[in-house]
Amino acid sequence: MRLFLAIDLPSPLSEGVAAAQALLEDADGLRFTDAEQAHVTLKFLGETSSDRVPAVEDAVETAIDAAGVDPFDASVGGLGVFPSLDYIRVVWTGVEAGAAEMTRLHDAIERETTAIGFEAETHDFSPHVTLARMNDARGKNYVRRVVEHEHPSVGSFRVREVRLKKSELGPAGPEYETVSRFSL
Questions:
Q1: CA 169, 170, 175 angle in degrees (round to 5)?
Q2: N or C: which end of the chain has fewer CB within 10 A?
């Protein structure tokens, strides 16, 4: 099963995610994520056999204890892209308040999951919610203009847990299911 660790945005924020996506709806070549499934990925684990789940759960518990992060407030807003405005693959909205706490959680989870054999990240962690993926460059200039001139506010929420999620790829896009919850 494909697994990842994430902080889910609560349902009321899906409207803010959809509003941010609406700013980009006229751009060709974008494939939008499901606003109802919006989340901040802390660590992508990839294909993982079910017999490794207990070790992952133990590693995440250890990581959360080590990070020393209590429940905190987070806010999401603005727009950005990966890897750059010249070559856009992902359009996102960023974590504004709460980014430091999410980074501490990510760093601790990264240490503990690589210690049990998962691959280390190859890029710096930047807490964000993916809004869309760019399939081709037809809408690049439109996306660039929106990202440079718009700063939507998605909303704020209280972060109380990290979730181990399973991702099932289907014809309508990925479907996510929570496997485990870890309280802060």
A1: 65
A2: N
